[in-house]
Amino acid sequence: LAASLIALALAAAVVAVHLSNPGVIERTPGPNLFILVNSTLALGVDGLSVWLLALTALLVPLAILGSTATVRQQPKAYYALMMLLAAAMQGAFLARDLLWFYIFFEFTLIPLFFIIGIWGGPQRRAAATKFFIYTLAGTLITLATFLYMASVNNLDFSFASLAGTLADLPRGTQLLLFAGLFLGFAIKVPLFPLHTWLPLAHTEAPTAGSVLLAGVLLKLGTYGFLRIGIGFLPSAALAVAPLMATLGVAGIIYGALAAWVQRDYKRLIAYSSIAHLGFCMLGMFSLRAAGITGSVLVMVNHGISTGALFLVAGMIYDRYHTREFDALGGLGRRMPVISAFLVFFALSSLGLPGLNGFVSEFLVLIGAIASGRAEGHLPAVLGVGYAVVAAFGIVLSAVYLLYLVGRLVFGPLKEPDVAGHGPTAAGPRTGRLAEEEAIVLPPDASAREWAILVPLAVFVLLLGLWPAPVTRSINGPANRLLDGVRAVEQARYDARVEDIRQQCAANLRGFGEAFRAYQSRNQSTRPAGLVSQSRPDDTAHEGTRP
User: Fold this and answer.
1) Mean pLDDT in each 10-residue stretch from start to end of the chain (546 residues)?
2) Cα–chain-centroid distance for residue 538?
3) What are phi and psi of 91, to 5 degrees?
4) Which run of H or of E encompasses 55?
5) Which pLDDT score is estimated for 392?
6) Running DSSP on this structure, what letter comes out for residue 217?
7) I need a labelling partner for 322 at 20 to 30 A (CA). Which of 98, 290, 453, 488 fits?
8) pLDDT at residue 28 in the model
9) Which residues, including other chains, have CB under 8 Å from residue 60's CB and lie 6 or more apart?
10) Residue pair 24/45 in contact by the 8 Å Cβ criterion
11) Beta strands in 394-454 (DSSP E)
12) What's this model's pTM, rounded to 2 decimal places?
């Protein structure tokens, strides 16, 4: 906990420096640790990554604090894995070198695999195995793509060098590279229909694992699409933008409908992540500054709101040891404080004006609508139809989140036989469940739980009422990211103009040659007696004409 609080203080200092002097904050690259390739541990942040770094630094100590009363089995190993996971996530957002980004990106699998597999629920091994296989399979293909990217750049993995080299590749080559990136990043997001590993992993993970998985780890996929997919392959991003936005919108609707029919409240929150990150992908591939700003803000706000919902769900589970809606109800009577926080974070998640979710979703919809018409050298890619379907997804999110609140908080009080205070009427428990039930918690929020939930509530209000510092710092890097797309369109426009000019010149040359051929042919066929001669009378009297 102390180490995570130090990391939080350092992240806060980085955010303060960034706000006072917007731009890229970089550390001097270290030595090249690899043979035959140019790859250094270059670290830095800009407006696209600094807020994700801050989000990670915020959620890690809260997740650790949430585990102190419930993790009794091998606590030293558990917290060591949590710190390794935190370091890998922060390293991925800090990396300015493609090889180091992949190392940090891939290393997140190992600690989370053990956290789910050892401290998870009854199906923890199946959940951990499915999570590991899915994500590893995708990222191995992504590794091959990264290696090819470096091979066309003289084995130089630095972001700055790769961005310039890869942007000049033909569109067909860029599309193949984007397909390689897609498998690794889309599974991590996860994009519909590659999401099937997520609900089980969320449901079986311990509370802290669910918080970090939803709050941070999923953002590695969206951040990869933004930083590498759009930043390095602008021509491919422009070509696939309608497809990626369609998958995002499909995820919004599917995630909302799937969440609505769940009978497990933790599983409902898991499916809501698919819907929220669909908004993230829609804004990103609108290829407009407003949409990309909203996309990054969705990443941050989803991490806060959904992380908070998982924490509240964990607090309820720690007392009742069930996640079934049928076993619980009317908890507002038994635990009014925790219930009030549940309502508050559900409203932030559905996008209530004045709370953090509204601003990000509004910017995404604005970006989708704006991308329906050309803007300078940015062509039209999406349109109002995407925004209409996504807005319907917001309505569905209100349905499933109010269903969550209604089933748990309101109505007559309904509790299972075991309320987290000992054995059931059927006799004493053994094993893991006995350890869980032996944990005695107060009926409502303890001081520790207040300390966890209040900071998240403050940030929900702060980002909802005063998002300007965050949006302003994101907007500049978003526009610079779009400069690559503008350059692609400018090059295509210049090429079209040059083709038209050359075609016109060729047509004029052809017309001139045809005209000269016509004249020569006409003169060669005229009779010699028809050659015109001047009349003497006309010449003599020409000077006397009035």
Assistant:
1) 87 87 66 73 87 94 88 87 93 91 92 90 88 87 91 87 87 92 89 86 89 92 93 90 93 93 91 92 92 93 93 90 87 90 93 90 93 80 91 92 91 71 38 49 83 94 92 89 78 67 77 75 61 47 44
2) 90
3) -65, -40
4) helix 50-67
5) 93
6) I
7) 453
8) 58
9) 4, 7, 8, 82, 86, 212
10) yes
11) none
12) 0.84
Q: Is 191 helix (H, G, I), strand (E, B) or coil?
A: coil
**What span, in angstroms and rounded, lies between the C-alpha atoms of 146 and 136?**
15
Alpha helices (H) in 525-542, listed in sequence order: 536-540
Contacts of 490 (CB under 8 A, 6+ apart): 377
The two tokens of residue 157 are 């993995």
Which residues neighbour 132 within 8 Å (Cβ) at sequence distance 6 or greater? 109, 113
Q: Which of 124, 5, 110 is CA-nearest to residue 60?
A: 5
Question: Per DSSP, which regions of 274-412 are E strands?
Answer: none
Look at residue 539 in the predicted model and tell me its pLDDT.
45
Q: Which amino acid is at 466?
A: W
Distance between CA 242 and CA 380 in Å, rounded? 10
Residue 181 tokens, joined: 């990136």
Q: Specify the DSSP class assigned to residue 95.
A: B
Distances in whole angstroms, Cα of residue 258 to Cα of each of 118, 199, 211, 268, 477:
28, 10, 20, 8, 35
Which among 253, 244, 131, 144 is positioned nearest to 187, based on CA atoms? 131
Q: What's the confidence (pLDDT) of residue 80?
A: 93
Q: Dig out the tokens for 170 from the structure.
A: 């033909």
- Comparing C-alpha atoms, which of 315, 320, 332, 314 is closest to residue 415? 320
